[in-house]
């Protein structure tokens, strides 16, 4: 059964399924509906035997500027601790880990802003191709009095030293710097992003599918043996603590807009 999506779009290109964030007017902010649709589309692509590789991308100028904070403010500001925990566990943590654990190879194709929640989703993919104008940031320690995003993938993709600076300053990281740190596989001109992502996806799609699944499983297990999953689970709880701190409450009372402006000042963006 084919589902109708409103916040994402799905395109089949040969053996590759492209899942696009598709709210360009909102910088592809990840609303509840967008995340539900992305998770459903991922499930469909996994279930379809003719799909060999899955690309996660964004329509328009940006990959994604992160979670939809306007929606969060209007619909979830009165959440109890239990309700917020349940919401973030399902939609942020579990959905993200389903991308990480997806049995088929995945590639993030990133342009423009790849921030906070968007950064989290992109970094759940196995490989990343970024355009020269792409930039990464997770400014919430500076802006929203929060302990990073819900899934602390940062030290695993950029290294511990860089992760400290990235998270504590909230600054932007360019595609070139991300490439140098090993977080991005290839940096390409903006007008070649689709083409270069396709090139990589088709190459990967040519691998024997069961062998590819096993290679991926072994690589993910290599991370798990080093504590990947346990450290992410641990951080999720720590992140929840930051949502009930006094400084978080004061930030909320002053308004999310003031927090975001404060983050921008700190990161020089
Ligand atoms: Zn959170």
In short:
Helices cover 52% and strands 14% of the residues. It contains 13 helices and nine strands. The strands form two sheets. It has a six-stranded mixed β-sheet, sandwiched between helices.
Question: Could you name the key traits of this structure?
Answer:
269 residues; alpha/beta; 2-enoyl-CoA Hydratase, Chain A, domain 1; six-stranded mixed sheet; three-stranded mixed sheet; 13 helices; 14% strand; globular; binds zinc ion
How would you describe the overall organization of this protein?
There is one protein chain. The chain has 13 helices and 9 strands. The chain has helices at 32-47, 69-76, 81-100, 117-122, 140-143, 154-158, 160-169, 175-180, 193-205, 209-225, 228-242, 246-254, 256-267, and strands spanning 8-13, 16-21, 53-58, 106-110, 113-115, 127-131, 135-137, 173-174, 186-188. The protein has a 6-stranded mixed sheet, with helices on both faces. Strand 2 (16-21), helix 1 (32-47) and strand 3 (53-58) form a beta-alpha-beta unit. Helix 1 runs parallel beside helix 3 (81-100). The protein is globular. The chain binds zinc ion. Zinc ion binds at residues 88, 146, 150, 239, 243.
